Amino acid sequence: MMGDSIFNCCYVPPHPPGEEEHLRSRRAEIMASHSAHLPSDKRFLIFFDFDETIVDETSDDLVVQAAPGQHLPDWLKDTYQPGRYNEYMQRVLGYLAEQGVTESHIRSIMEKIPATPGMLMLFQFLRTRPPPDFEVVLVSDSNMFFIESWLRRAGARALFHRIFTNPATFNKDGRLMLRPFHSHDCPRCPVNMCKQVVVRDYVARRIQERGRPFQRVFYVGDGANDFCPALSLGPRDVAFPRRDFPMHRLITETHEAMPGEFKAVTVPWVSGEDVVQRLRKLVTE
User: Fold this and answer.
1) Distance between CA 44 and CA 216 in Å, rounded?
2) Rounded CA gap, 208 and 269, in Å?
3) pLDDT tens digits for 64-85?
4) Which helix (H) or strand (E) holds 177?
5) Taken in order 78, 81, 86, 87, is the CA torsion positive or negative?
6) Would residue 49 show up in a list of annotated catalytic residues for this protein?
7) Do 176 and 169 contact (CB within 8 A), yes or no?
8) What are phi and psi of 253, to 5 degrees?
9) How many other β-carbons are positioned within 10 Å of the β-carbon of residue 279?
10) Is 51 labeled as catalytic in the residue annotation?
11) Cα separation, 55 vs 67, whole angstroms
12) Are strands 134-143 and 44-48 parallel, antiparallel or unpaired?
């Protein structure tokens, strides 16, 4: 029998009346607008997580460096509820704004996050492949401001055809306003984002637009919320879990408890170079 870590990661309470339908419709709009004008000749589709996959830290944790004394007051930390981290981060960002933390200060913190070992080499590999090879998509439970700040500083923004993450923009008062990405019914995932829903919707829409499937789909991640989308991969697809991180452990547990439930080929990685080595072989098959 599977452990609670897989099937009961978090309780997903209902949204306020009316909000759930609004978020569902917004998700459909996002999917529709984000798939317009994409090239249809790509052979492979590769998804990336952001925190502790592309970057070697968690961006939500590092933004706390902007707080007075580089820590949050206990009364604020005590407001966190399992499965509702996005709402907690809304309060954290509001607190930072009240303390006078500026957009430029937050951006500078994001820009300094180190890349995961070998990740820039992996990006360079994807950039230098022939144009028909890879459609590159980022799926993250961080937020758009954090992610784009880092990618632009690293010179990697143009690599990503689409980014699916929680919306975040500064208002006229200088506060970073964070919103949930969508609503969903998955019991495994945080209330604001199920990456499997994102991956399934995106792949289905792209296949319809292209008129044919991708030769393979790849997913590079590390966390428990990256296990859920990897479950949607097929036997020709490849999951790249960061070795000994939660995604890797959950895949291993699943293979042991329910053989055949996890269908994708699994290639654990320590460095982005490990991913490059496997991709080099797969693109020539």
Assistant:
1) 5
2) 32
3) 999 999 999 999 999 999 889 8
4) strand 176-178
5) negative
6) yes
7) yes
8) -60, -40
9) 23
10) yes
11) 21
12) parallel
Backbone φ/ψ region at 248: left (φ over 0), alpha (ψ -120 to 50), beta: alpha
Inter-residue contact 181 to 166 (CB < 8 Å): yes
Give the residue carrying structure tokens 């098959």: 285
d(C-alpha 263, C-alpha 91), whole Å: 39
- Quote the CA–CA distance of 26 and 18 in Å, as a whole number: 13
β-partners of residue 242 are 269
Q: Which residue out of 4, 41, 51, 201 is catalytically annotated?
A: 51
Question: Which residues lie across from 198 on neighbouring strands?
Answer: none
Tokens standing for residue 35 = 């798939």
The pTM of the full predicted model, rounded to 2 decimals, is 0.87
Q: Compute the distance between CA of residue 140 and CA of residue 136 in angstroms, rounded to an integer.
A: 13
27-78 tens-digit pLDDT: 555 554 455 567 677 899 999 999 999 999 999 999 999 999 999 999 999 9
184 closest CA partner among 31, 17, 15, 47: 15
* Dist. CA 269–CA 188, nearest whole Å: 24
What is the rounded distance in angstroms from the CA atom of residue 67 to the CA atom of residue 94? 11
Q: What is the mean pLDDT of the chain?
A: 88
Set 4, 49, 61, 237: catalytic member: 49
- Average pLDDT of the segment spanning 217-226: 97
